[in-house]
Design goal:
This protein is of the alpha+beta class and 454 residues long. The protein has 3 domains: 120 residues, no CATH class; 108 residues, Helix Hairpins; 147 residues, 2-Layer Sandwich (Heat Shock Protein 90), CATH 3.30.565.10. The protein contains 12 helices and 11 strands. The protein has a 5-stranded mixed beta sheet with strand order 6-8-9-11-10, covered by helices on one side. It has a 4-stranded antiparallel beta sheet with strand order 2-1-4-3, with helices on one face. Strand 3 and strand 4 form a beta hairpin. Helix 10 packs antiparallel against helix 12. The longest helix is centred in the middle third of the chain and has 51 residues. It is rod-shaped and about 155 Å long. The structure holds adenosine-5'-triphosphate (ATP) and magnesium ion (MG). The site of adenosine-5'-triphosphate has 23 residues, from helix 10 and helix 12.
């Protein structure tokens, strides 16, 4: 269980090793920073404003108690309230509603004093005096910081956060916009366009890299397809021009010259056969590419199949010595017809490229959980430069020699490769110039135990 979890973690880590700072992380950090900034600014402003207001309140409370004390002890007459109010930058109002007495000292505040007032009442000399001290000092932001302005400031901060967030997001999403533009500009004729490298070390960098890799693959497949079409047309042109040549010969001399007539007809038939074989191979590969060819698994005795092919080869390969080294009663679960087609294509090559008198050995043994089918000849062999390419489509090694072998299209081994690989097997070639060739097919037993009858 723990091992499984570690494996899942490792897989996720290796998948995301290019992502150092994910978008999720960046967005979280960004929003946390913005949120923290708004909270810090608002809390700082609020606490500063509170402390300033408290200070002012304490001040006017002190002044108002001082004034009340003077009124109470009838020292009012000798005290200069006017200059006291001016010096403290406050407005003092003393009223007795009963007698209608009212006096104001200092400059009356023009408008709202934002609640910075102190009200007291003093009972003295049989009267009740109301004393009001209003703060006139400009207390700056603290004075402006009413609940309304506080919320307005929060809204302004939020708007600033939204604008900066949008700008940042826009910058982060730039590769996505570029990808959209690149995707729009790509056409079948021009697959060479790529997204500029992104160095954001996040999911977008991964997306851009993946997008470019996908374009590489599409371009490669497109080029391969184009090459296939042009190679196929080229291969079809040769037999067509031979047929056309002999048809012209027939038209001119066919009626008069019996020998020319017979030769032309024979050649036309031969080339038509070649063309038919070529078209069949092309169709096979086209179907294989479109995944329209299925592998029909069945359990069969592969030893019998190899014997069957060896017998058939002995009948047609009269000038070659056909030998066999076949382990008895080997069973495999595979597509019998396809395996037969593959072995026959390899045997066909050995017959074609081994001079008369040479020998061809068909062998069949078990190897691990697979059967090892091999065809070995004593023919011309394949040079080390050609060897890695013989499974490529239309590849013909030693062109001058192959040209003399009419009907070679260079498709046989690429079909064998498709068949072996679609069985989950392996195809290998061992050869050297002048010392024969061995083509080895490893076909897994399809998950079934290899059955050997006693
Ligand atoms: N047994 C062999 N001995 C020497 N050369 C070989 C042998 N098998 C394959 N080759 C070389 O590999 C090339 C590719 O083989 P492949 O079977 O794909 O094509 P082909 O035989 O030329 O044409 P096709 O099989 O389509 O008729 C051949 O052209 C030949 O040069
Ligand atoms: Mg061949």
């Amino acid at each position: 269980m723990v091992r499984k979890m570690i494996a899942v973690f490792e897989r996720a880590r290796s998948k995301r090793q290019n992502i150092k700072f994910s978008i999720a992380l960046k967005a979280t950090v960004l929003y946390t920073a913005m949120f923290g900034f708004i909270i810090a600014v608002s809390a700082g402003a609020l606490s500063w404003a509170m402390s300033v207001r408290t200070m002012h309140f304490q001040n006017i409370e002190r002044i108002s108690s001082f004034v009340a004390d003077h009124v109470m002890h009838e020292r009012g007459g000798s005290f200069n309230f006017e200059s006291f109010a001016e010096a403290n930058n406050v407005y003092i109002e003393i009223r007795d509603p009963k007698s209608g007495f009212s006096a104001g000292f200092g400059k009356k505040p023009a408008g709202n004093t934002q609640g910075l007032e102190s009200l007291r009442q003093v009972d003295t000399m049989g009267s009740r005096f109301f004393i009001k001290v209003s703060d006139r000092e400009n207390i700056g932001i603290a004075g402006v910081l009413t609940p309304v302005t506080f919320f307005a400031a929060i809204l302004a901060l939020l708007a600033a956060a939204a604008v900066s967030g949008a700008l940042l997001m826009r910058k982060m999403m730039r590769p996505v916009y570029q990808m959209t533009r690149t995707a729009r500009s790509i056409s079948a004729g021009d697959l060479s366009r790529r997204i500029d490298p992104v160095h954001s070390r996040d999911e977008l960098q991964e997306l851009a890299d993946t997008f470019n890799e996908m374009l590489d693959r599409i371009q490669e497949a497109y080029n391969k397809q184009n090459r296939f079409v042009s190679d196929a047309s080229h291969e079809l042109r040769t037999p067509l021009s031979v047929i056309s040549g002999y048809a012209n010969l027939l038209r001119r001399w066919g009626n008069d010259d019996r020998e020319i007539r017979n030769e032309s007809v024979d050649k036309i038939i031969e080339e038509t056969d070649n063309m038919q074989r070529l078209v069949e191979r092309l169709l096979f590969l086209a179907r294989a590419d479109q995944k329209r060819l299925g592998v029909k698994y069945e359990k069969f005795c592969v030893s019998d199949l190899m014997d069957e092919i060896a017998d058939e080869t002995s009948l047609i390969g009269g000038q070659h010595k056909i030998m066999r080294s076949i382990e008895r009663e080997l069973y495999v679960t595979a597509d019998r017809a396809l395996i037969k087609q593959a072995v026959r294509a390899v045997v066909e090559n050995s017959l074609k490229y081994t001079p008369a008198g040479g020998s061809i050995t068909l062998s069949c043994v078990t190897e691990g959980g697979a059967v090892r089918l091999s065809v070995k000849d004593t023919g011309a062999g394949i040079s080390t430069e050609d060897l890695p390419h013989i499974f490529d489509r239309f590849y013909k090694a030693d062109v001058s020699r192959v040209r003399s072998v009419r009907g070679s299209s260079g498709l046989g081994l690429s079909i064998v490769k498709w068949i072996v690989e679609s069985h989950g097997g392996q195809l290998k070639a061992e050869s050297a110039k002048g010392s024969g060739t061995e083509i080895i097919m490893l076909i897994p037993c399809g998950g079934h135990a290899l059955l050997t009858a006693n």
